[in-house]
Every structure is written in structure tokens, then in C-alpha cells.
Input
Amino acid sequence: MEPKATQMLVDIEMLRRYDRPGPRYTSYPTAPNFSSDFGADEFIDEIIRSNRVDHPANLSLYFHLPFCEKLCYFCGCTMLITHNRNRLDEYLDYLSKEISIIGKKIAAGRKVAQLHWGGGTPTYLDAGQIRRIFSVIRDNFDFTDDAEIGVEIDPRALSEENLDALKEVGFNRASMGVQDFEQKVQVAINRVQTEKLTRWAFDGLRHRGFESINLDLIYGLPYQTVHSFEQTLDRIINISPDRLAIFNYAHVPWLKKHQQVIDQTALPEPSEKLKILKLTIEKLTAAGYVYIGMDHFAKPDDSLTKAFHEKKLYRNFQGYSTHSDCDLYAMGMSSISQLESVYAQNVKTLPRYYEAIDRNTLAVERGYRLNDDDQIRRYTITKLMCDLELDQGKIEEKFDISFENYFEDAIRQLQGFRDDGLLKFSKRKITVTETGHLLIRNIAMAFDSYLQKDRLKDTPIYSRTI
Output
């Protein structure tokens, strides 16, 4: 019998006390610490090394498809607006070349257990383009029989032909942006998407046998209120997706210039935003969804929930994942790969991406090679965020350290979380409480040795934790 979800109750005053800027820990060290000293040659060396270990890992593939037809004002992604479909074909030409370069460097026998198309808007590709690029992927990689193959979908850029093509090439999972059903909010963020259109896309995916469908919402958008967002949640619960991602809108106009279009005076006050978050967590968990962590919710029988309960959850640049045992190879402009000991990020502009591929090399712009301390801290932070507990003995055995001595400063910081009821210490285990689960980013920050350096930078680099 699958474990049932139980309603979580949210202490709004505790959330308010801990609301501060902090990393989301999709990597450690985080992306601001990547260096241009790490480039294509270093990444190729690591690919070769990863082939030579006794048991090479399976593969997780990510493809960045950056084009969109319209600009969503809230967007924090690397994307490009175009109405020229020739630009899509040109990009696919270069992406195909990159796929071939990567594919030739990975040892035969290593299989793809997970694949994801992100953007931008992957479904801005037409059916022929979807088939074309996936054929290139199949020509260069072998897949496990049960591979999770997911795609991000915008119902506004979707057709029956798109849906048929996605199913035909092998996609079995989908994530769809909704953000909010309130029309005033939709107009303010330049993303008008009716409930009828969302349901049509959702039903089309279900009809074609997609195994897991995620819907994205965002809280903290202009003109949102507790009442209006509750109405959106009611309609979302009625649609009944397998998973939900409820993101905190990060208003960072100094990083994303197009966000300057948003009327900052229309954004919910911090107190209203916290009430929306409280409502969301309590309402979704009361409706049967399990709170996985950070922004993620899933039904009790979803594979994400099973991984959470079995302590097999992992966290990477795609958020929470069920595949902790894979090397992540990311292709396309701005995408970030993650192998056992390195991160490698591609260049962020099309001209430079095309220039690198024309030289028949990888388009890596910067990256990072983890040292021993990074490995220890990444493992610890990942376990904390995914398992909601730290087994000090297991960490000591894995890395041959004394937990108390190595993390003396972190343990000192954790005392405050324990005093506030966010952590429990017992039998050499540190366990996150239900309230602490909501503040896991704050707790993880105690183990981050780079935060002081990041704080000294002139430009803010992290969104707020709540």
C-alpha cells in the first residue's frame, strides 16, 4: 500500500523570520562559482575518465531549446523570441552536430535512463522538427527499456500534430506551464492561457498515455491575492496532475532586464505572498499531494514520491529527480552538464555557440572541478535536501572524516534551527522536522563554504528562500 499524504500546517511567522536570499542548491558549488578556467578540453578529459571507471554510470540527457514565440515577463530562463522558423532549423543543425560530438565521446554500452527537453519552448518546434532532432538523438544514444523521457510544454504552442510526434518518438512524461488562471495576472505577465486550453493539452497527453504530467504554478506574481490563487488551486486540483511545481517568483530585473516591464507596485506584499504559500501547501497536502520539498508536490503513487520515501531522491539542475546514479550531459546553448567531479556550462549566446560547434569542439564556456571539500559538502547538502536527515556515521564512513570536527562551524549554526524546532538531534542523526522541511534551503546554507564570498559580490545573485 502506498503511503498517504497528510496535510501540512504552516507556521507563517517562522517563514517570515527565515525569508532571506539563498541558493536553490541545484548544484554545489553553485553556478556563480563556476570559472572560465574550465573549458571544453577539461570537460572532454572528464568524459573520457567517466568511461574508464569500473562501472560507468547511465546517462541523463538534457537539451535546451531556447526559442519562444512570445515573451513571458516573469521568465528567468535563457530564451530567445523569434517568429522566423528558419532560425529553429539552423539551431537544430548545430544541436545535431553537438549531439554527434558528445555521442562519439561516450563509451558504447552506456545507456540513457532519463531525457528532458527544456527551454524556451520545446513545443515551438513543429512535428517534423521534433521527429528530426529526436532521430539524431536515437542515432547517437541507446536507451534503457524504462527510460523517463520528458518534455516541457506550452499549450499555446501546441497542436495535435505536435502531440502525436512527441508520443511517436518516445516521450512519456510532460511538464506544462500554467502559472495562474486569473486573467488579470495573465495579462500582467504577458501569458494569456485559458483553463480550456490547458485542459485540452492535458487531456491530449493523457489520451496518448503519458505516464506523469506536471503542472507549474508561480506565486508572487502581480495582482495575485490569497483569494485569487485559491481559485486557481481549486481548478488545478480538479485537473489532477501527477505532480505540481509551485515556484516562488524571483523578481530580479537587474539580471533579467525584461522583468522591468512588470509593475513592481502590483506585486503582492511579502505578508500576502507568505499567506499564498501557506494556503498552497496546506491545500495541496489536504488534497492528497505529498510535499516533496522546495517547490515540488506529487501524488502518493508517483515515482517521485516513491523515491522520496525510499530515500532515493536526487537534486540537480532539473530540480528533484529519481535518477541519482546518472551522469548528466546537457546540450544546447547555456545548458549545464554534471558529472561526478565536474560541472560544465555551454556559452549563452547563439553566435558563440555556433562558432564553437563550427570548430568541431564543445561549446563549454565555464565550469568547475570539485575538490575533496566540495565533494563532502555536496553529498551532505544533497542528503539533507533529499532525505531530510543526515546520518553522521554514514558520512564519516564514506569520506573518512569526523563529522563533528569537520562541520564544527555548521553544527554551531544548526543550533539555532534546533532551538526553533526545525531540526532534531538524536543518536548521531540530524533530522529535519515538518516546519524545517519548508526551510530546507536555509538549513542547507549552514554547510555552504562559499556563501561569504558570494555575499561580497556587488550584484545580488540569489532569490529569496520564501
Q: What stands out?
A: The radius of gyration is 22 Å.
